[in-house]
Automatic annotation (TrEMBL):
SUPFAM superfamilies: (Trans)glycosidases. Belongs to the glycosyl hydrolase 1 family. Keywords: Carbohydrate metabolism, Cellulose degradation, Glycosidase, Hydrolase, Polysaccharide degradation. Its EC number is 3.2.1.21. InterPro entries: GH (IPR017853), GH_1_N_CS (IPR033132), Glyco_hydro_1 (IPR001360), Glyco_hydro_1_AS (IPR018120), Glyco_hydro_1_beta-glucosidase (IPR017736). It catalyses: Hydrolysis of terminal, non-reducing beta-D-glucosyl residues with release of beta-D-glucose. PANTHER family: GLYCOSYL HYDROLASE, LP05116P. The active site is at E380. Residues 320-342 are annotated as: Disordered. This is Beta-glucosidase.
Amino acid sequence: MPQAATPATPVTFPPAFLWGAATSAYQIEGAVREDGRTPSIWDTFSHTPGKTAGGEHGDIAVDHYHRYRDDVAMMAELGLTAYRFSISWSRVQPTGRGPAVQVGLDFYRRLVDELLAHGIKPAVTLYHWDLPQELEDAGGWPERDTAYRFAEYAQIVGEALGDRVEQWITLNEPWCSAFLGYASGVHAPGRTDPEASLRAAHHLNLAHGLGTSALRAAMPARNSVALSLNSSVVRPLSPQDPADLAAVRKIDDLANGIFHGPILHGAYPESLLSATGSITDWSYVLDGDLRAIHQPLDALGLNYYTPCLVSAAGAGAAGPRTDGHGVSEHSPWPGADDVAFHQTPGERTEMGWTIDPTGLHELIMRYTREAPGLPLYITENGAACDDKPEPDGSVHDPERIAYLHGHLSAVRRAITDGADVRGYYLWSLMDNFEWAYGYEKRFGAVYVDYATLARTPKSSAHWYGQAARSGTLPPVNSD
Protein backbone atom coordinates (compact mmCIF):
# COMPACT_ATOMS: atom_id res chain seq x y z
CA MET A 1 0.00 0.00 0.00
CA PRO A 2 1.37 3.47 -0.86
CA GLN A 3 2.83 5.39 2.04
CA ALA A 4 0.49 8.01 3.50
CA ALA A 5 1.38 11.59 2.66
CA THR A 6 3.30 13.43 5.37
CA PRO A 7 5.25 16.68 5.36
CA ALA A 8 8.30 14.56 4.48
CA THR A 9 6.49 12.82 1.58
CA PRO A 10 4.76 15.58 -0.42
CA VAL A 11 2.01 14.65 -2.86
CA THR A 12 3.48 15.46 -6.26
CA PHE A 13 1.77 15.03 -9.64
CA PRO A 14 3.15 14.22 -13.11
CA PRO A 15 4.46 17.31 -14.98
CA ALA A 16 1.78 17.16 -17.72
CA PHE A 17 -1.13 16.89 -15.27
CA LEU A 18 -3.84 19.47 -16.00
CA TRP A 19 -5.02 21.70 -13.16
CA GLY A 20 -8.40 23.05 -14.13
CA ALA A 21 -11.71 24.40 -12.93
CA ALA A 22 -15.16 23.80 -14.37
CA THR A 23 -18.39 25.74 -14.91
CA SER A 24 -21.55 25.41 -17.00
CA ALA A 25 -23.26 27.94 -19.23
CA TYR A 26 -26.60 28.43 -17.50
CA GLN A 27 -24.98 28.65 -14.08
CA ILE A 28 -22.65 31.53 -14.91
CA GLU A 29 -23.36 33.28 -18.22
CA GLY A 30 -26.55 35.29 -17.69
CA ALA A 31 -27.51 37.36 -20.76
CA VAL A 32 -30.35 34.95 -21.37
CA ARG A 33 -32.16 37.22 -23.85
CA GLU A 34 -29.15 38.67 -25.66
CA ASP A 35 -27.80 38.05 -29.15
CA GLY A 36 -30.56 35.71 -30.26
CA ARG A 37 -30.53 33.30 -27.33
CA THR A 38 -33.90 31.70 -26.66
CA PRO A 39 -35.13 29.90 -23.51
CA SER A 40 -33.76 26.55 -22.46
CA ILE A 41 -35.57 24.12 -20.20
CA TRP A 42 -33.74 25.67 -17.24
CA ASP A 43 -35.05 29.14 -18.07
CA THR A 44 -38.57 27.72 -18.06
CA PHE A 45 -38.07 25.57 -14.98
CA SER A 46 -36.41 28.25 -12.86
CA HIS A 47 -39.18 30.73 -13.67
CA THR A 48 -41.85 28.25 -12.60
CA PRO A 49 -42.98 29.06 -9.05
CA GLY A 50 -41.78 26.59 -6.44
CA LYS A 51 -39.13 24.90 -8.55
CA THR A 52 -36.01 26.66 -7.23
CA ALA A 53 -34.99 28.02 -3.84
CA GLY A 54 -36.39 31.50 -3.46
CA GLY A 55 -37.63 31.45 -7.04
CA GLU A 56 -34.08 32.21 -8.16
CA HIS A 57 -32.94 31.83 -11.76
CA GLY A 58 -30.00 32.31 -14.10
CA ASP A 59 -31.13 35.45 -15.93
CA ILE A 60 -28.00 37.28 -14.76
CA ALA A 61 -26.23 34.48 -12.87
CA VAL A 62 -22.71 35.85 -12.38
CA ASP A 63 -22.71 37.74 -15.71
CA HIS A 64 -19.83 35.79 -17.20
CA TYR A 65 -21.14 36.64 -20.68
CA HIS A 66 -20.00 40.23 -20.16
CA ARG A 67 -17.13 39.60 -17.71
CA TYR A 68 -15.39 36.64 -19.35
CA ARG A 69 -12.17 38.54 -20.05
CA ASP A 70 -11.74 39.45 -16.40
CA ASP A 71 -12.68 35.90 -15.39
CA VAL A 72 -10.05 34.41 -17.70
CA ALA A 73 -7.43 36.83 -16.40
CA MET A 74 -8.34 35.73 -12.87
CA MET A 75 -7.88 32.07 -13.86
CA ALA A 76 -4.46 32.83 -15.25
CA GLU A 77 -3.48 34.78 -12.14
CA LEU A 78 -4.50 31.81 -10.01
CA GLY A 79 -2.30 29.51 -12.09
CA LEU A 80 -4.92 27.30 -13.76
CA THR A 81 -3.76 25.38 -16.80
CA ALA A 82 -7.20 24.22 -18.04
CA TYR A 83 -10.80 25.43 -18.02
CA ARG A 84 -13.85 23.30 -18.69
CA PHE A 85 -16.96 25.21 -19.75
CA SER A 86 -20.17 24.33 -21.54
CA ILE A 87 -21.87 25.77 -24.61
CA SER A 88 -25.41 27.09 -24.34
CA TRP A 89 -27.22 25.15 -27.08
CA SER A 90 -29.99 27.76 -27.33
CA ARG A 91 -27.40 30.54 -27.70
CA VAL A 92 -25.88 28.78 -30.71
CA GLN A 93 -28.96 27.13 -32.25
CA PRO A 94 -31.98 28.84 -30.66
CA THR A 95 -34.68 26.42 -31.78
CA GLY A 96 -32.46 23.35 -31.53
CA ARG A 97 -32.67 23.06 -35.31
CA GLY A 98 -31.29 24.73 -38.38
CA PRO A 99 -28.38 27.11 -38.89
CA ALA A 100 -26.31 28.59 -36.10
CA VAL A 101 -26.60 32.13 -34.85
CA GLN A 102 -23.10 33.36 -35.54
CA VAL A 103 -23.15 36.03 -32.86
CA GLY A 104 -23.79 33.26 -30.32
CA LEU A 105 -20.86 31.24 -31.63
CA ASP A 106 -18.74 34.38 -31.64
CA PHE A 107 -18.97 34.58 -27.84
CA TYR A 108 -17.40 31.15 -27.54
CA ARG A 109 -14.80 31.98 -30.19
CA ARG A 110 -13.77 35.02 -28.15
CA LEU A 111 -13.72 32.99 -24.93
CA VAL A 112 -11.51 30.32 -26.49
CA ASP A 113 -9.15 32.92 -27.93
CA GLU A 114 -8.91 34.61 -24.53
CA LEU A 115 -8.10 31.32 -22.81
CA LEU A 116 -5.44 30.40 -25.35
CA ALA A 117 -3.88 33.86 -25.07
CA HIS A 118 -3.47 33.25 -21.35
CA GLY A 119 -2.02 29.76 -21.80
CA ILE A 120 -5.13 28.00 -20.51
CA LYS A 121 -6.30 24.83 -22.27
CA PRO A 122 -10.04 24.99 -23.11
CA ALA A 123 -12.22 21.92 -22.65
CA VAL A 124 -15.69 22.23 -24.20
CA THR A 125 -18.77 20.43 -22.89
CA LEU A 126 -21.53 20.46 -25.49
CA TYR A 127 -24.44 19.65 -23.19
CA HIS A 128 -24.75 20.54 -19.53
CA TRP A 129 -28.51 20.11 -19.04
CA ASP A 130 -29.84 23.18 -20.90
CA LEU A 131 -31.94 21.71 -23.73
CA PRO A 132 -33.58 24.34 -25.97
CA GLN A 133 -37.18 24.68 -24.82
CA GLU A 134 -38.51 24.13 -28.34
CA LEU A 135 -36.98 20.65 -28.35
CA GLU A 136 -38.59 19.88 -24.99
CA ASP A 137 -41.91 21.11 -26.39
CA ALA A 138 -41.44 18.52 -29.15
CA GLY A 139 -40.93 15.77 -26.55
CA GLY A 140 -37.42 16.35 -25.20
CA TRP A 141 -34.96 13.56 -24.48
CA PRO A 142 -37.61 10.82 -24.39
CA GLU A 143 -38.01 11.46 -28.14
CA ARG A 144 -35.53 9.89 -30.53
CA ASP A 145 -35.32 12.97 -32.74
CA THR A 146 -33.57 14.92 -29.97
CA ALA A 147 -30.49 12.71 -30.38
CA TYR A 148 -30.30 13.61 -34.08
CA ARG A 149 -30.72 17.30 -33.29
CA PHE A 150 -27.82 17.01 -30.84
CA ALA A 151 -25.59 15.51 -33.54
CA GLU A 152 -26.38 18.45 -35.82
CA TYR A 153 -25.55 20.88 -33.02
CA ALA A 154 -22.29 19.01 -32.27
CA GLN A 155 -21.24 19.36 -35.89
CA ILE A 156 -21.93 23.11 -35.83
CA VAL A 157 -19.86 23.70 -32.71
CA GLY A 158 -17.11 21.31 -33.78
CA GLU A 159 -16.69 23.14 -37.07
CA ALA A 160 -16.60 26.51 -35.30
CA LEU A 161 -14.14 25.69 -32.51
CA GLY A 162 -12.43 22.43 -33.45
CA ASP A 163 -9.39 24.16 -34.92
CA ARG A 164 -8.51 25.63 -31.49
CA VAL A 165 -10.14 23.37 -28.89
CA GLU A 166 -8.63 19.91 -28.53
CA GLN A 167 -10.63 18.55 -25.57
CA TRP A 168 -14.33 17.83 -26.10
CA ILE A 169 -17.03 16.36 -23.87
CA THR A 170 -20.36 15.43 -25.43
CA LEU A 171 -22.61 15.18 -22.34
CA ASN A 172 -22.26 16.09 -18.70
CA GLU A 173 -23.90 13.71 -16.23
CA PRO A 174 -26.60 12.19 -18.45
CA TRP A 175 -27.94 10.43 -15.32
CA CYS A 176 -29.08 13.80 -13.98
CA SER A 177 -30.62 14.80 -17.31
CA ALA A 178 -32.59 11.56 -17.55
CA PHE A 179 -33.59 10.76 -13.99
CA LEU A 180 -33.68 14.08 -12.15
CA GLY A 181 -35.29 15.72 -15.17
CA TYR A 182 -37.81 13.06 -16.18
CA ALA A 183 -38.30 10.76 -13.15
CA SER A 184 -38.04 12.68 -9.87
CA GLY A 185 -38.69 16.07 -11.48
CA VAL A 186 -36.30 18.03 -9.25
CA HIS A 187 -34.41 19.27 -12.33
CA ALA A 188 -35.65 20.71 -15.59
CA PRO A 189 -37.93 19.94 -17.30
CA GLY A 190 -39.53 18.68 -14.08
CA ARG A 191 -41.34 15.64 -15.46
CA THR A 192 -42.14 12.58 -13.33
CA ASP A 193 -42.57 9.66 -15.72
CA PRO A 194 -40.35 6.60 -15.00
CA GLU A 195 -40.77 5.16 -18.50
CA ALA A 196 -39.89 8.51 -20.09
CA SER A 197 -36.74 8.70 -17.95
CA LEU A 198 -35.50 5.37 -19.28
CA ARG A 199 -36.27 6.44 -22.84
CA ALA A 200 -34.38 9.67 -22.13
CA ALA A 201 -31.36 7.73 -20.88
CA HIS A 202 -31.22 5.71 -24.09
CA HIS A 203 -31.59 8.76 -26.31
CA LEU A 204 -28.89 10.58 -24.37
CA ASN A 205 -26.63 7.60 -25.02
CA LEU A 206 -27.57 7.73 -28.69
CA ALA A 207 -26.90 11.48 -28.73
CA HIS A 208 -23.44 10.84 -27.32
CA GLY A 209 -22.68 8.28 -30.02
CA LEU A 210 -24.06 10.34 -32.90
CA GLY A 211 -22.46 13.48 -31.51
CA THR A 212 -19.09 11.77 -31.22
CA SER A 213 -19.25 10.76 -34.87
CA ALA A 214 -20.32 14.27 -35.88
CA LEU A 215 -17.47 15.87 -33.94
CA ARG A 216 -14.90 13.56 -35.46
CA ALA A 217 -16.17 14.34 -38.95
CA ALA A 218 -15.96 18.08 -38.26
CA MET A 219 -12.63 18.37 -36.42
CA PRO A 220 -8.94 17.54 -36.77
CA ALA A 221 -8.09 13.95 -35.83
CA ARG A 222 -5.81 15.15 -33.01
CA ASN A 223 -8.80 16.26 -30.93
CA SER A 224 -10.04 14.21 -27.99
CA VAL A 225 -13.72 13.28 -27.55
CA ALA A 226 -15.01 12.14 -24.16
CA LEU A 227 -18.08 12.34 -21.97
CA SER A 228 -18.48 13.03 -18.25
CA LEU A 229 -20.34 10.54 -16.06
CA ASN A 230 -21.37 11.10 -12.46
CA SER A 231 -20.84 7.42 -11.80
CA SER A 232 -21.93 6.41 -8.32
CA VAL A 233 -19.82 4.51 -5.83
CA VAL A 234 -22.55 2.25 -4.44
CA ARG A 235 -21.89 0.40 -1.18
CA PRO A 236 -24.03 -2.07 0.77
CA LEU A 237 -25.26 -1.29 4.26
CA SER A 238 -24.44 -4.91 5.22
CA PRO A 239 -21.72 -6.36 2.97
CA GLN A 240 -22.63 -9.94 3.98
CA ASP A 241 -26.36 -9.55 3.33
CA PRO A 242 -27.37 -10.97 -0.10
CA ALA A 243 -30.42 -8.69 -0.20
CA ASP A 244 -28.25 -5.61 0.31
CA LEU A 245 -25.82 -6.81 -2.35
CA ALA A 246 -28.77 -7.21 -4.73
CA ALA A 247 -29.79 -3.63 -3.90
CA VAL A 248 -26.27 -2.46 -4.78
CA ARG A 249 -26.49 -4.22 -8.15
CA LYS A 250 -29.85 -2.61 -8.94
CA ILE A 251 -28.66 0.92 -8.14
CA ASP A 252 -25.29 0.35 -9.80
CA ASP A 253 -27.10 -0.64 -13.00
CA LEU A 254 -29.30 2.46 -12.91
CA ALA A 255 -26.50 4.84 -11.95
CA ASN A 256 -23.63 3.40 -13.94
CA GLY A 257 -24.36 0.42 -16.16
CA ILE A 258 -27.15 2.16 -18.05
CA PHE A 259 -24.49 4.49 -19.47
CA HIS A 260 -21.14 2.74 -19.39
CA GLY A 261 -22.70 -0.55 -20.53
CA PRO A 262 -23.61 0.61 -24.05
CA ILE A 263 -20.92 3.31 -24.28
CA LEU A 264 -17.94 1.21 -23.18
CA HIS A 265 -19.15 -2.32 -23.91
CA GLY A 266 -21.89 -2.03 -26.53
CA ALA A 267 -24.75 -3.50 -24.47
CA TYR A 268 -27.12 -2.70 -21.62
CA PRO A 269 -26.72 -4.95 -18.56
CA GLU A 270 -29.20 -7.83 -18.67
CA SER A 271 -29.91 -7.26 -14.97
CA LEU A 272 -30.97 -3.68 -15.77
CA LEU A 273 -33.34 -4.80 -18.52
CA SER A 274 -34.84 -7.38 -16.20
CA ALA A 275 -35.26 -5.01 -13.23
CA THR A 276 -37.00 -2.38 -15.35
CA GLY A 277 -39.07 -4.80 -17.43
CA SER A 278 -42.29 -3.86 -15.64
CA ILE A 279 -41.76 -0.20 -16.62
CA THR A 280 -40.55 -0.45 -20.21
CA ASP A 281 -39.99 -3.06 -22.90
CA TRP A 282 -36.96 -1.15 -24.26
CA SER A 283 -38.47 -1.34 -27.76
CA TYR A 284 -37.04 2.12 -28.51
CA VAL A 285 -33.56 0.53 -28.70
CA LEU A 286 -33.51 0.03 -32.47
CA ASP A 287 -31.20 -2.01 -34.66
CA GLY A 288 -27.93 -0.17 -35.02
CA ASP A 289 -28.35 1.97 -31.91
CA LEU A 290 -25.82 0.10 -29.83
CA ARG A 291 -23.25 0.25 -32.63
CA ALA A 292 -23.84 4.01 -32.92
CA ILE A 293 -23.46 4.48 -29.16
CA HIS A 294 -20.39 2.26 -28.80
CA GLN A 295 -17.90 4.71 -30.33
CA PRO A 296 -14.28 4.49 -29.24
CA LEU A 297 -13.57 7.20 -26.67
CA ASP A 298 -10.36 9.20 -26.41
CA ALA A 299 -10.89 9.79 -22.68
CA LEU A 300 -13.51 9.49 -19.96
CA GLY A 301 -14.52 12.18 -17.50
CA LEU A 302 -15.51 11.19 -13.98
CA ASN A 303 -17.50 13.47 -11.66
CA TYR A 304 -17.41 12.55 -7.99
CA TYR A 305 -18.75 14.09 -4.80
CA THR A 306 -19.80 11.37 -2.35
CA PRO A 307 -20.52 7.62 -2.21
CA CYS A 308 -23.98 6.20 -1.60
CA LEU A 309 -25.03 3.53 0.88
CA VAL A 310 -27.98 1.25 0.12
CA SER A 311 -29.86 -1.72 1.48
CA ALA A 312 -32.94 -3.73 0.71
CA ALA A 313 -35.95 -1.71 1.83
CA GLY A 314 -37.87 -2.88 4.86
CA ALA A 315 -41.46 -4.06 4.66
CA GLY A 316 -43.81 -1.26 3.71
CA ALA A 317 -41.03 1.07 2.58
CA ALA A 318 -42.06 3.60 -0.02
CA GLY A 319 -38.81 3.35 -1.94
CA PRO A 320 -35.90 5.76 -2.31
CA ARG A 321 -36.78 9.42 -1.81
CA THR A 322 -33.90 11.03 0.12
CA ASP A 323 -30.81 9.98 -1.80
CA GLY A 324 -28.92 13.26 -1.87
CA HIS A 325 -30.44 14.41 -5.17
CA GLY A 326 -33.21 16.66 -3.89
CA VAL A 327 -36.53 15.94 -2.26
CA SER A 328 -39.41 14.63 -4.35
CA GLU A 329 -42.41 12.38 -3.97
CA HIS A 330 -41.18 10.68 -7.13
CA SER A 331 -38.14 8.42 -7.24
CA PRO A 332 -35.20 9.01 -9.61
CA TRP A 333 -34.58 5.24 -9.52
CA PRO A 334 -37.18 3.52 -11.75
CA GLY A 335 -37.78 -0.07 -10.80
CA ALA A 336 -35.91 0.29 -7.48
CA ASP A 337 -38.68 0.93 -4.98
CA ASP A 338 -37.38 -2.05 -3.01
CA VAL A 339 -34.09 -0.23 -2.29
CA ALA A 340 -33.46 2.11 0.65
CA PHE A 341 -30.75 4.79 0.80
CA HIS A 342 -28.84 5.62 3.97
CA GLN A 343 -26.66 8.53 5.06
CA THR A 344 -23.03 7.49 4.95
CA PRO A 345 -21.16 8.30 8.17
CA GLY A 346 -18.68 11.12 8.46
CA GLU A 347 -18.27 14.85 8.05
CA ARG A 348 -20.60 16.47 5.51
CA THR A 349 -20.59 19.44 3.16
CA GLU A 350 -23.34 22.06 3.04
CA MET A 351 -25.12 19.80 0.55
CA GLY A 352 -25.38 17.14 3.24
CA TRP A 353 -22.99 14.93 1.26
CA THR A 354 -20.48 12.89 3.23
CA ILE A 355 -16.83 13.71 2.59
CA ASP A 356 -15.10 10.47 1.58
CA PRO A 357 -12.02 10.63 -0.69
CA THR A 358 -11.76 6.83 -0.68
CA GLY A 359 -14.78 6.79 -2.97
CA LEU A 360 -12.91 8.80 -5.59
CA HIS A 361 -9.99 6.36 -5.51
CA GLU A 362 -12.44 3.46 -5.77
CA LEU A 363 -14.19 5.07 -8.74
CA ILE A 364 -10.96 5.73 -10.60
CA MET A 365 -9.72 2.19 -10.10
CA ARG A 366 -13.06 0.77 -11.21
CA TYR A 367 -12.85 2.53 -14.56
CA THR A 368 -9.18 1.67 -14.88
CA ARG A 369 -10.38 -1.94 -14.85
CA GLU A 370 -13.61 -1.26 -16.82
CA ALA A 371 -11.79 0.46 -19.69
CA PRO A 372 -8.08 -0.41 -19.57
CA GLY A 373 -5.92 2.01 -21.50
CA LEU A 374 -8.54 4.77 -21.56
CA PRO A 375 -7.22 8.08 -20.16
CA LEU A 376 -9.29 9.51 -17.29
CA TYR A 377 -9.99 13.04 -16.15
CA ILE A 378 -11.71 14.11 -12.96
CA THR A 379 -14.06 16.57 -14.63
CA GLU A 380 -15.89 17.60 -11.44
CA ASN A 381 -15.06 17.38 -7.76
CA GLY A 382 -15.66 19.92 -5.04
CA ALA A 383 -17.58 20.96 -1.95
CA ALA A 384 -20.28 23.42 -0.98
CA CYS A 385 -19.22 25.31 2.16
CA ASP A 386 -20.75 28.06 4.28
CA ASP A 387 -18.44 30.75 2.94
CA LYS A 388 -18.65 34.27 4.39
CA PRO A 389 -16.36 37.27 3.91
CA GLU A 390 -14.24 38.53 6.78
CA PRO A 391 -14.46 42.22 7.75
CA ASP A 392 -11.46 42.93 5.50
CA GLY A 393 -13.23 41.28 2.55
CA SER A 394 -11.13 38.13 2.46
CA VAL A 395 -12.84 34.73 2.38
CA HIS A 396 -11.29 31.82 4.25
CA ASP A 397 -12.53 28.30 3.55
CA PRO A 398 -10.24 25.82 5.31
CA GLU A 399 -12.90 23.10 5.01
CA ARG A 400 -12.65 23.25 1.21
CA ILE A 401 -8.86 23.17 1.32
CA ALA A 402 -9.01 20.02 3.45
CA TYR A 403 -11.57 18.54 1.02
CA LEU A 404 -9.36 19.27 -1.98
CA HIS A 405 -6.22 17.96 -0.31
CA GLY A 406 -7.97 14.72 0.57
CA HIS A 407 -9.47 14.15 -2.87
CA LEU A 408 -6.40 15.18 -4.83
CA SER A 409 -4.35 12.85 -2.64
CA ALA A 410 -6.79 10.09 -3.60
CA VAL A 411 -6.23 10.92 -7.28
CA ARG A 412 -2.47 10.74 -6.82
CA ARG A 413 -2.79 7.42 -5.01
CA ALA A 414 -4.79 6.07 -7.95
CA ILE A 415 -2.05 7.20 -10.34
CA THR A 416 0.47 5.38 -8.17
CA ASP A 417 -1.79 2.32 -8.37
CA GLY A 418 -1.67 2.37 -12.16
CA ALA A 419 -4.54 4.65 -13.21
CA ASP A 420 -3.97 6.99 -16.17
CA VAL A 421 -5.50 10.17 -14.70
CA ARG A 422 -4.40 13.18 -16.71
CA GLY A 423 -6.18 16.11 -15.09
CA TYR A 424 -8.49 17.46 -12.41
CA TYR A 425 -11.22 20.08 -12.79
CA LEU A 426 -12.32 21.68 -9.56
CA TRP A 427 -16.05 22.30 -9.26
CA SER A 428 -16.43 25.14 -9.42
CA LEU A 429 -14.36 28.08 -10.54
CA MET A 430 -16.70 30.48 -8.76
CA ASP A 431 -19.95 30.61 -6.85
CA ASN A 432 -22.92 30.46 -9.21
CA PHE A 433 -26.54 29.43 -9.75
CA GLU A 434 -26.71 25.98 -8.20
CA TRP A 435 -29.75 24.68 -10.10
CA ALA A 436 -32.77 23.98 -7.87
CA TYR A 437 -30.81 25.28 -4.86
CA GLY A 438 -30.65 28.75 -6.41
CA TYR A 439 -27.78 30.78 -4.97
CA GLU A 440 -27.81 29.33 -1.47
CA LYS A 441 -25.05 26.74 -2.04
CA ARG A 442 -21.52 27.97 -2.74
CA PHE A 443 -19.17 25.56 -4.52
CA GLY A 444 -16.77 28.15 -5.89
CA ALA A 445 -13.09 28.63 -5.22
CA VAL A 446 -13.88 32.27 -5.97
CA TYR A 447 -16.46 34.10 -3.88
CA VAL A 448 -19.11 36.07 -5.76
CA ASP A 449 -20.97 38.91 -4.06
CA TYR A 450 -24.35 38.46 -5.74
CA ALA A 451 -25.32 42.10 -5.09
CA THR A 452 -22.31 43.56 -6.90
CA LEU A 453 -21.01 40.46 -8.77
CA ALA A 454 -17.52 41.26 -7.49
CA ARG A 455 -15.19 38.25 -7.47
CA THR A 456 -12.88 37.46 -4.53
CA PRO A 457 -10.63 34.39 -4.65
CA LYS A 458 -11.06 32.38 -1.45
CA SER A 459 -8.22 30.78 0.47
CA SER A 460 -8.89 27.56 -1.46
CA ALA A 461 -8.33 29.34 -4.78
CA HIS A 462 -4.89 30.49 -3.65
CA TRP A 463 -4.12 27.03 -2.25
CA TYR A 464 -5.21 25.36 -5.49
CA GLY A 465 -3.19 27.87 -7.49
CA GLN A 466 -0.07 26.94 -5.51
CA ALA A 467 -0.74 23.29 -6.32
CA ALA A 468 -1.20 24.09 -10.02
CA ARG A 469 2.01 26.10 -10.24
CA SER A 470 4.17 23.64 -8.31
CA GLY A 471 2.52 20.30 -9.17
CA THR A 472 2.67 19.48 -5.46
CA LEU A 473 -0.09 19.78 -2.88
CA PRO A 474 0.64 22.47 -0.29
CA PRO A 475 -0.08 21.68 3.35
CA VAL A 476 -3.74 22.02 4.29
CA ASN A 477 -2.94 25.05 6.46
CA SER A 478 -1.34 26.88 3.52
CA ASP A 479 -3.30 29.40 1.46
